[in-house]
Structures are given as structure tokens and as C-alpha cells.
């Protein structure tokens, strides 16, 4: 518990020093749209008959607040639990610390989010981090020709990085996935920023990735690698993404990136994940 206490204190201090304000969100909300229900959403029926769902994503709450209130600017931090079903049907409770900036104005917004996260993590959880940098637009370009009915399953397979399974899926459904397969194979062999030219990226995307890598590389104890096959958030994100792994006690501990808030607005955020085995011990 001492590590978590130190993490929370450090995170809040860093966030407030950068001008972030506390964002509060109820753990339950009325379920008015049944399309919100999927395999991971925890929902229940109240005594009065209404349907409610447990909070499963803080960023979605921030986006909804921004769109409903026509806010000029949101620069917020949050902390609390999210609830999701895992693959076995058990409810998983995860404590989250996060930041969001809406609207996104420049790469400096991403750097501020990362600065708060890195400072608090390196001070309290570990001194050895791997940061995988990607960009949702790269894989989106590779799958834009794939019918929507296949995309969810395709992205799940990409996340597993199983080339043979992807080849079978392509053959079974008569899909051209050669560009997707190249990205997955490159995630094992082309992880250095020095190899960016081999991806033939749009110049603006390449420039953003280089700037992000240069910023991250200034931190002692941080190793930076490129992985454009990161697919788990491609539906939500719109631009550079980052995933943080603890190298001492191998685990995913944070993630974030730039995302679309509405047709005219982008946002950027990041979240630190604290699993139950950590906060309950």
C-alpha cells in the first residue's frame, strides 16, 4: 500500500502543478442506449426497473461531459475504480489515475500528459520503463478496405500478434491483409525510430512520432520502441498512442494517446492502471 500511496500523492501533486483540476464522475449511470452493452460492460436493473451500468472508462465520461456542457477547455485529472467483465465472466476492479486535455492543440499537450505520468510512475512504482509508441492512423489505413463486420475480430487477432492465425483468417474470409501482416511482423523486427522510413508514413505522422520519441528519450530509465500494430484502441484513438510497461515486474501499467471527441475536436489523455493484486495487498 505504501507504493500506491506514494503514487497517488505524486500523481496529484504533478497534475496540480501543471494546472489540472479534479474531475468527478459517478460510478453508475443510466443506461439509455442498449448499444452501450457489450461483453465487458457491467450493468444491472434497479428496483424501479431502470437499467444502469458501472463505470468502465473514465475517458468516455470526460468526453460525454465536454460534449454535453459545451465546455471551452477541460484540463482534468481523475482517480477511482472502473469495472469490467473479463473473458471468464468475472468482474474485474481496476483503480485508475488519469489525465485528459480537451481540446488537443499541439504535441505539447501530449508531452504534459506524459510528463505527469512518467514523473509519478518513475518516482513510486519502478525506475525501468518500456514505452511502446504507435499511431492509430497507420493501422486504420491498413484495414480501411476490410468490411466492418470483420474488423473487431481482426483487431483482436492483431493484438495477439499471431501471424499464422491472421493468415488463416484472411484466407477463410477472402481478405487482403498483406499490409496488416507487414505491420505485425514489423512489430518484432522494426522497433527503432531509425527504421521509420521503412514504413513509408505520411510525413506529418512521421514527424509526430519522432517528436514523441525524442521527448520520451530524455527520461533516464525509459526505453522507447515503435509498434504500429497496437490495435486495441484503434476504434477510439486518432493519432499517436503510447503504452507503458514495467520492465522490473513485467506488466502493463499505463496507456493513452490522442482521440476524437467529436467531429471537430480532438483530445489527449493517459491512464495509469493499478490492478487489485497491487492495491489490495
Unreliable stretches (pLDDT < 50, length at least 5) are none
Mean pLDDT: 89
| Main sheet record | 8 strands, mixed
The level-1 CATH class of the domain at 1-126 and 265-281: Alpha Beta
How many alpha or pi helices?
A: 9
CATH topology of the domain at 1-126 and 265-281: BirA Bifunctional Protein, domain 2
Known CATH architecture of the domain at 1-126 and 265-281: 2-Layer Sandwich
Span of the ends, CA to CA: 7 Å
Task: Encode the helix/strand succession as letters.
Answer: HEEEEHEEHEHHHHHEEEEH
Quick one: CATH superfamily of the domain at 1-126 and 265-281? Bira Bifunctional Protein, Domain 2
Radius of gyration: 19 Å
Overall geometry comes to globular
Number of strands: 11
What does this structure look like?
This protein has a domain at 1-126 and 265-281: BirA Bifunctional Protein, domain 2 (2-Layer Sandwich), CATH 3.30.930.10. The protein has 281 residues and is α+β, with helices and mostly antiparallel strands. Helices cover 38% and strands 29% of the residues. A hairpin with a 5-residue loop joins strand 5 and strand 6. The protein has helices spanning 2-17, 58-69, 107-124, 136-143, 148-160, 163-172, 178-189, 203-216, 276-279; strands at 21-22, 28-30, 43-45, 51-54, 74-85, 91-102, 129-135, 222-226, 237-246, 251-262, 265-275. It is globular, with a radius of gyration of 19 Å. It has an eight-stranded mixed sheet. A three-stranded antiparallel sheet has the order 2-4-3, with no helix packed on it. Helix 3 (107-124) packs parallel to helix 8 (203-216). It contains nine helices and eleven strands.
